[in-house]
Write a structure and sequence with these properties.
heterodimer; A: 332 residues; mainly alpha; ABC transporter involved in vitamin B12 uptake, BtuC; 0% strand; globular; B: 264 residues; 9 helices; 28% strand
Amino acid sequence: MNLRTMPFSIKFVIACIGLVASLFLAMILGAANISVSDVWLAIIGDSSKNSLILREIRFPRELAALLVGSALAVSGAIMQGMTRNPLADPGLLGLTAGANAALAIAIALVPSLNYYGIMTASFLGAAAGALVVFGIASAKRGGFSPFRLVLAGAAVSTFFFAVAEGVGIYFKVSKDISMWTAGGVIGTTWSQLQIITPVIVIGIGIALVLSKQLTLLSLNEEVAVGLGQHTFRIKMILFILIILLAGSAVALVGNLAFVGLMIPHIVRAIVGTDYRFILPMSAVLGGAFMLLADTLGRTMNAPYETPVASLVAVMGLPFFLIILRKGGRAFS
Amino acid sequence: MVRLATENLQIAYGEQIIVDDLSVTIPNKKITAIIGANGCGKSTFLKGMTRLIPRHSGKVLLDGGDIADHKTKALARKMAILPQTQEAASGLTVSELVSYGRFPYQSGLGRLTTTDLEVINWALAVTNTESFRDRQVDALSGGQRQRVWIAMALAQETDIIFLDEPTTYLDMAHQLEVLELLQKLNVEQERTIIMVLHDLNQAARFADYLIAMKDGKVIKAGSSEEVIESATLREVFRIDAEIGVDPRSGKPMCITYDLLKGEY
């Protein structure tokens, strides 16, 4: 049986096993010396030092990695389908930078901002970033061409990052901002997760329900209209989902480009081009990928942290270049 | 019985009016071809009639009501549209693509029912695409691919089928293949077919009713004998055409032509 003929269900089960294995690795590998039995003890509510470390530091952190990976991968896949643009990624198309700038402004204006505030700012910023990029790109007919969109994304991102920097320096809040935006899951707490988990889970859930519509939209918009799709309504809902997913990811980890680009491309090579398969697979593999990346970041130079954003970028940039070189058709 | 007609239809891109005050009646259960030079608005007219692009003013009437008052899914059960640019079907297999023709009948996640599968098989059989149903659409030849897209439109089970230049980019044999398939669907199943055609002689040969357009207006509409004649071709295509009779089909055909004198 080769990859093409293997039923999706089997591929999906294998991917889920991979995700559980990644989660497991992420739990036991790290600066503190943790064994399998420690993990078990922590889960059943033991109160030793190791269990506390696990429960209060590592569990939330790894759960955050998983959620962020899934959210970014799914939002990247939706963007790619919607715009029929293989280079779409929340980090490349201005969402992350927009959320960043909004965070900076929010923190500068309200230093005591709580987590709901952080999240709302992220959503608003992500929406603003995306709107500006899509607005620039669609100002001309045929504007969603991969290169125009990426160029607009790069320009707008640079602008928003400059805004964030400027606000940070002017209001002397750079340190506070960078705590949010450094691009890592370090220091994630349960209370943050309590707020963000439902957003991401529901967001992915709705995306899965709309996956068939997304495939149709990704084929050809005129065909979709002819088949009776409410394309405008569907695109609006998908757009909101992208904002929610990418915005939550920024609220949790800050800047993280390329995950939303890479994972859907790898997934397409495995499951084909039907978004009913791409979206669930992206969620699972995105989660597994971030777990492994974060584990690598924690362990490769322990006890020092290697920033996971840098690790992802080191992997993502060559990947981006390959896709670009193949005219967006690599791995699909 | 009239099922489909437009009343004072006007379509504009921004300030520029592409289709101006068009009132036509599409004959039921016939093949209608829309012809005209590049940029005359024929594709835009087709898109306007099928709600692919918004209109500026006027009406498109289907069964007595404006199509804007139909639910889009209900409309998709009455009319199917095959746009001109079928870009890559990005990895879908033939039967997967054809199954999307059942979209207007589905709700939610869209599982295929037995009826759906029967219709899909029928559409594949009619278009002679069964033998490669599990191959990827992108791997097919142009003619095969066009037949697959027509199969998708057929799976919609609509009485009315619109096609925008269905023979463009195909070689001669494949062009005929597609047109004969459409003719068969019209004759055997009484489907109303409305298509934009580039080739005058094909339009004359296969269409029962021709609509010749220029600058967003209808210059002449009628049977091929009425439309394919030198005065109309002079005005619509700005050519000086020699009209004869196709010895096989008995339809008028443009044998040869020159540019109009003094025009460049």
